[in-house]
UniProtKB/TrEMBL annotation:
Assigned protein family: Belongs to the FAH family. Belongs to the hydratase/decarboxylase family.
Keyword check for Metal-binding: yes
Protein name in the entry: Fumarylacetoacetase-like C-terminal domain-containing protein
InterPro entries: FAH, Fumarylacetoacetase-like_C, Fumarylacetoacetase_C_sf
Highest taxon of source: Bacteria
Reaction equations catalysed: (2E,4Z)-5-hydroxypenta-2,4-diene-1,2,5-tricarboxylate = (3E,5R)-5-carboxy-2-oxohept-3-enedioate; (3E,5R)-5-carboxy-2-oxohept-3-enedioate + H(+) = (4Z)-2-oxohept-4-enedioate + CO2
MF annotations from Gene Ontology: 5-carboxymethyl-2-hydroxymuconate delta-isomerase activity; 5-oxopent-3-ene-1,2,5-tricarboxylate decarboxylase activity; metal ion binding
Biological process annotations from GO: carboxylic acid metabolic process
Transmembrane segments: none
Species of origin: Pseudomonas fluorescens
Domain Fumarylacetoacetase-like C-terminal: 78-282
UniProt KW keywords: Metal-binding
Pathway assigned to this chain's UniProt record: Aromatic compound metabolism; 4-hydroxyphenylacetate degradation; pyruvate and succinate semialdehyde from 4-hydroxyphenylacetate: step 5/7; Aromatic compound metabolism; 4-hydroxyphenylacetate degradation; pyruvate and succinate semialdehyde from 4-hydroxyphenylacetate: step 4/7
Function: Decarboxylates OPET (5-oxo-pent-3-ene-1,2,5-tricarboxylic acid) into HHDD (2-hydroxy-hept-2,4-diene-1,7-dioate) and isomerizes it to OHED (2-oxo-hept-3-ene-1,7-dioate).
Length: 286
């Protein structure tokens, strides 16, 4: 299933079921269903089958081009990102292959829609892109085993871990450089895990103004998604709707000589096979 959060004109955000080129407003057909994505994920066991029946019903929806797609989880409880998780990105960064997983937090105010503008900050011009597969936590969990980690993932999205490199690298902690407002666009919807045969066999690409900058496959992840969630659960309670950025392949702007930073008006598109694509235009910070 494909699940989104959308808005139509000035109406409140709503949870939608994407079928073809249309979105079905869940609340209009399942009036008792949760009205937020986190609520729906939390109660997924109760709503999976009604949503499958709704998808198969043939009921008419709203054309996707008539709505605004928001971040599928508009304000996640947590956004976490792993660094140096593709071998070619490790090589271009000039760093040693990680033995342990390298994690940083991204503030939830960075969450952004799949087609919304991304800000060029007032305080930096070192703006970079990172194509990433994102996964969404599906249950409250702690101390997962390797066997249970797979079942704890609700679904997958396309993401761009937009990074302000000078702020990221001026200290040993990446949080500030990874947490600017608008810098965590993801979507365009969540593809539920049961619709993805293997999340570790998906092509991933990034284009800047139609120029291909990144081209890899999630099979190249150093620590796969199940290892990531198992590791995180040793430290903290993960909750439904938490958003995990799983790492970027080689080809980021910082690796070019000279660096190729994003500029106002640049259009950044990230595609992942089976998950669709997001596209964001850089604007000056308002």
């Amino acid at each position: 299933m494909k699940l989104c959060t959308f808005q139509q004109r000035d109406s409140a955000p709503a949870v939608g079921l994407v079928v073809g080129e249309q979105v079905i407003a869940v609340a209009e057909h399942l009036s008792a269903a949760p009205v937020s994505m986190i609520g729906l994920i939390t109660e997924w066991a109760a709503w999976r089958e009604p949503l499958r029946k709704l998808r198969a019903s043939g009921v008419a929806g709203i054309a996707l081009d008539q709505v605004t797609l928001l971040a599928p989880v508009p304000r996640p409880g947590k956004i976490l990102g792993i660094g140096l998780n593709y071998a070619d990105h490790v090589e271009e960064s000039g760093m040693d292959m990680p033995v342990d997983q390298l994690w940083f937090a991204m503030m939830n105010t960075a969450a952004n829609g799949p087609f919304a503008p991304v800000d060029l900050p007032k305080v930096s011009d070192a703006l970079d892109y990172e194509a990433e597969m994102v996964f969404i936590v599906g249950q409250r969990c702690r101390h997962l085993t390797a066997e249970s980690a797979k079942q704890a993932i609700f679904g997958y999205c396309v993401g761009n871990d937009v990074s302000v490199r000078d702020w990221q690298l001026r200290t040993s902690q990446f949080i500030l450089g990874k947490s600017f407002d608008t810098h965590a666009p993801f979507g365009p919807w969540i593809v539920t895990a049961d619709d993805i045969e293997d999340p570790h066999q998906l092509g991933i690409r990034c284009f800047v103004n139609d120029e291909k900058r990144q081209d890899s496959n999630t099979s190249q992840l150093i620590f796969d998604c199940y290892e990531q969630i198992e590791h995180l659960s040793k430290v903290m309670t993960l909750e439904p709707g938490d958003v995990i950025f799983s790492g970027t392949p080689g080809g980021v702007g910082a690796a070019f000589k000279p660096a190729r930073w994003l500029r106002k008006g640049d259009r950044v598109r990230v595609e992942i096979d089976g998950l669709s694509a997001i596209e964001n235009v850089v604007r000056s910070e308002i």
